[in-house]
Specification:
The structure is a single chain. Helices cover 67% and strands 0% of the residues. The protein contains six helices and no strands. It folds into three domains: 40 residues, no CATH class; 48 residues; 60 residues, no CATH class. The chain starts with a helix and ends with a helix. By secondary structure, the chain is mainly alpha-helical.
C-alpha cells in the first residue's frame, strides 16, 4: 500500500486496526472502542519522491498553461490579420467604385497610403537614427524634402497654391 492510498483510506484502516486490536485484547477482558491514526511520518526517501512528483506536476501544468496561452495569442493574431485584410478589401472596393464613377480624387487614397508606408519605413531605418559623428544632420535628407514638396500636388491638389501647407512642412 502506497502513501497516497494510506492517507486516502485512513478511516478504513482505522476500522481494520480496531477489529484486530479488539480481538487481541478481548481475552484479557478489555474492550477497545476507538483507534485513530493521527500522524504518519513517511521515510525521507518517500517524502523526497513525493516532492519530486509534486514539482513535476506543477511544471507540467505550467507548460500546459503556457502552450494554451501561445495558442490563444496565435488565434487572436490571426483574427486581427483577417480583420485588417477585410478592412483593406473594403477600402479598395470603395475607392474602385469611386474611380469607376469618375472621381479621380479617389486614386489619391492609394498614393497617400504608399507615402505613409514609405515614411513609416524611413522612420524605422537605421540611417534615420542620430549618430554621434553628425549631431547636426537634419532628420530628412534634402532630396527627400524636395520630393515631399513636389508630391503635395498629387496628394492635395486643391491646396497646391496655399502656403499654409508648406508652413507645416518646414525643413
Amino acid at each position: 500500500m502506497d502513501l497516497n492510498e494510506v492517507l486516502s483510506r485512513r478511516d478504513e484502516i482505522n476500522g481494520m486496526l480496531l477489529n484486530v486490536i479488539d480481538r487481541a485484547t478481548n481475552p484479557w477482558g478489555m474492550k477497545v472502542t476507538r483507534i485513530e491514526i493521527r500522524d504518519l511520518t513517511p521515510p525521507v526517501d518517500i517524502t523526497a519522491a513525493m516532492a519530486k512528483q509534486m514539482k513535476a506536476e506543477r511544471e507540467k501544468r505550467a507548460a500546459v498553461l503556457e502552450a494554451e496561452g501561445r495558442k490563444e495569442a496565435a488565434f487572436r493574431d490571426a483574427e486581427a490579420r483577417e480583420r485588417l485584410a477585410q478592412a483593406e478589401a473594403k477600402a479598395t472596393e470603395m475607392v474602385s467604385e469611386a474611380i469607376a464613377k469618375g472621381d479621380v480624387q479617389a486614386i489619391n487614397y492609394f498614393i497617400a497610403q504608399k507615402y505613409v508606408d514609405a515614411f513609416g519605413k524611413l522612420a524605422e531605418s537605421d540611417q534615420q537614427k542620430p549618430s554621434s559623428s553628425r549631431p547636426s544632420s537634419p532628420p530628412w535628407p534634402p532630396p527627400l524634402a524636395g520630393w515631399v514638396r513636389s508630391s503635395k500636388r498629387l496628394v492635395f491638389p486643391k491646396t497646391a497654391g496655399r502656403k499654409s501647407w508648406m508652413r507645416c512642412m518646414t525643413f
